[in-house]
Automatic annotation (TrEMBL):
Gene label: nad1
GO cellular component: mitochondrial inner membrane
Pfam families: NADHdh (PF00146)
Topology class, membrane: Multi-pass membrane protein
GO molecular function: NADH dehydrogenase (ubiquinone) activity; NADH dehydrogenase activity
Origin organism lineage: Eukaryota, Metazoa, Ecdysozoa, Nematoda, Chromadorea
Name assigned to this protein: NADH-ubiquinone oxidoreductase chain 1
Transmembrane segments: 50-69, 76-99
Enzyme class: translocase
Length: 102
């Protein structure tokens, strides 16, 4: 608990939390900071080049980074609660699914 801001999320942390959330989305290459093309429209890249085990390891790495940043957010802002890790992970997945692709 030495690296936490406080034990409760207060409104002054919102000023830090929102830019941090956008930084996490950009670092993870999640929507809206990902490619403009749809994954199904690409005929080159890792969707075509890798198969089976390498493809699974690639996606495990992406979701591992998602879990890492969810845990980091929980440690910095919510004094490490497993519920906060789960909610942050769910928020990041929900932003990806709710953001429309044009």
């Amino acid at each position: 608990y030495m690296f936490c801001f406080s034990s409760v999320f207060n409104l002054s942390l919102l000023v830090i939390y929102l830019p941090f959330l956008f930084m996490v989305l950009a670092e993870l290459n999640r929507a809206p900071f990902d490619f403009a093309e749809g994954e199904s429209e690409l005929v080159s890249g890792y969707n075509v080049e890798y198969s089976s085990v390498a493809f699974v390891l690639l996606f495990l790495g992406e979701y591992g980074a998602l879990l890492f940043f969810s845990t980091l957010t929980s440690v910095l802002f919510f004094s490490f609660s497993f519920l906060a890790v789960y909610l942050m992970f769910t928020l990041l997945v929900f932003i990806r699914s709710a953001y429309p692709r044009f």
